[in-house]
Design a protein that fits this description.
Low-confidence stretches: none
Number of strands: 4
Strand order of the largest sheet: 1-2
Shape: elongated
Structural class: alpha+beta
Mean pLDDT: 77
Strand content: 15-25%
Radius of gyration: 18 Å
Order of helices and strands: EEEEH
Amino acid sequence: MAKETTKTLIEADGLRYKSKAPGSPFAATSSFGAATMSCFLCGKHRPRAMLKSRKLLGKSQPVCAPSCKELEEQLATKKP
């Protein structure tokens, strides 16, 4: 018997789906330096070049450089 195919469909509440589209929203890159990581403080994904390591809770964590607020302001002024 053939298996019935289910197309990806997000419900009205946006939380449930019958099947998930393959892949990741964060495309894999060929170079390690171009990959994204999430900031430990704000949680936004940024290229590794926009992050710095800071010791938090006894462990080095990636955080936005110079700070989350300043970086967000810089990115907002660059957009047309």
